[in-house]
Amino acid sequence: MTTIVVNDKVLMTNKVVKKEVIESMAILNRVKELRAAMGINQQELGSLVNVSRQTISLIERGDYNPSITLALKISHVFQKNVEEVFMLTEDEYEL
To answer: Which residues, in sequence order, are CB contacts of 40 under 8 Å at separation 6+?
Structure first.
């Protein structure tokens, strides 16, 4: 049984999810937007979640996907649900 989450709905299926579909998915995020709205810089956000400024920069550019733990910490700083900060999409160019 495979569990798939789509738009906050959990779908159960006996079908195997094709590897190509999973590999084509990208994670988009609103970290830069939310950080700017809070009035903090990358260094300050990094300090709040115990990572470097460089890690925050990589996340904002989409060059690095954070661990689940780090995504939850970042979301907590913004007082948002993780789904409001990080979004999974099938088209890495979709905004």
So the answer is: 48
